[in-house]
C-alpha cells in the first residue's frame, strides 16, 4: 500500500492523516503503519500466512456480564467489522474490552473507526524509544493532560534466558521480534569475574501495552475499551508441528522460534545505529533462535490458596490449561478473565473500565521484579570482579599476563558503562510509567479513592521505584571501579619495573668489580691467553656473577619465606 490513503476504504486513517499537522507524533505512526513494503514486515506476513493462514496479530472481545466474562476471538479484521455491524459501539447496554495483538493495518482501521480510538494511543504503542532523534517523534503528554482512567501506556522489559554462555546475542548485531510492530531484542551485558560467572546469558526486549476507553461512564452506562499488547517472541515456533508436539514441547527449556535478524555483524556502533534507525542499510530475514522465559515466566496474577474448596476447583480448571503459551500476553489475558477473575473484580470492572487492565498491570509488575533481580545479580558480579582483581595483583607479573589482565579490565569498564547507561534508561522508563498512571512518589493519592487496578499499581510501583533508584546509585558508585583497577595494575607494574631496574643496577655494581678483579688478575704473564693460569678469569668472574645475580632475583621470596617461618615458630 502506498502512502496515499483511500478515504473510502480507510476513513479512520484518513482522519488521522489530517491530524498529523497538529500532532506531529502521528506522522511517525502513519509512516510505519503504511510501510507495507518493509523487508521485515514482508517476511513476517508471508510466514504467518504460511504457518497460521492469517495475518499477523489477533483480536478478541471480552463482554463483562453479571458474574462472568464472555470471550469472542475473531478470525480476521472482516470478522471484527461484521461484529460491529451487528452490535455497534454506540448502541445497547454493553461493557466490552477489545484486545488487539500487534498493530496490523486492517485491525487498526476497523477498531479505530468503530470505537473512535485516540490515534495517539496507537502511536504510543508503536514506539518504545529510550529517546528521540530529529526524525523520530515521540509523544509525552503533560502530566496535567494525563487521565489514567481514560488512557495510558505502560512500558516494561521482557527478559529471555539464552541456552548457553556462547550462544548469546552479538552486541554489534541487529535482532528484532517476529511481528509487524517489531521490538528491538538486545543482549544483556554480563560482568564476569574470576570467581563468579553467569550460568546463562540473558536478552531483553523493550515492550509496552496501551489502554483506552470511551468516556468514563456512570454505573448505568455502557463503555467500550481497547487494550493493545505485543505478540510473543515465540509466535512462530520451529520445533512444533502439531497439537501433541505443542503439549510436549511448551514446557521444554529452551524453545526454538523465529526472530528477525540482520545477517550482517556491524563493525561499529555507528553502523548499528543507522540500521536500527531504519535508514535502509540493513536487511532483516527470518532466523531460528532459542530462548526461554526468564525464571520460568511470570507467575499467575492470583494469590495461591489451597485451604478452600472454591480455590481448589479453580486450580483444577487452570491445571487443564497448563500447556498454554504463557509468553503470550494475549492468551494470558483471555485465560485470566475467564478462569481466574473473581466475581468482585468483574463487578468492579463494570463500574470502572480501567480495571480491565488488572491482570495486565500485574503482568508488567512481575516483569519489573524480574528486572530488579537481574540488576541485583549484575551488581554482585561487579563487586566480586573488583574484589577478585584486587586480590589477584601479583608483584611479579609478566608483560603478557599484565597486558591480558589490563585488556580484561578495559572490557569490563565498557560493560560497566553500558550497565550504567541502561540503569538510566530503566529509571526514565519507570518514571514515565508513574506519570502515565498518575502516581506521585512524594504525594501518593488516597488508595480509597482509586479504582482497584490503579490502587494496586500505585502500591506496586511505589515499592519498585525506590529499589530501582537505590540500585542505580550503587551502579553510579561502581562506575569508577574499572578505572581504579587499571590504575592499580599500572601502579603495581610500575613498582615491579622499578624493582627490576634496581636489581639490574645492583647486579651491574657487583659484576663490574668482579670482572675488574678478573681483569687485573689477567694482566700478569701467567694469566695471558694461552698461559697456564688463564682459566682463573672464568673460574672467578662468571660463577660469582651468576651467584650474585641469582641471589638478587630469588633472594626476596626466600627472605619472605624464612621470615614467615620465624613468625610461625614464634606463634
Automatic annotation (TrEMBL):
Keywords for this protein: Membrane, Transmembrane, Transmembrane helix
Keyword Transmembrane helix carried by entry: yes
Signal peptide (from-to): none
Keyword Cell inner membrane among record annotations: no
Domain of life: Eukaryota
Listed GO MF terms: metal ion transmembrane transporter activity
Positions of transmembrane segments: 500-522, 534-554
Entry GO CC: membrane
Name of this protein: Cora-domain-containing protein
Organism lineage string: Eukaryota, Fungi, Dikarya, Ascomycota, Pezizomycotina
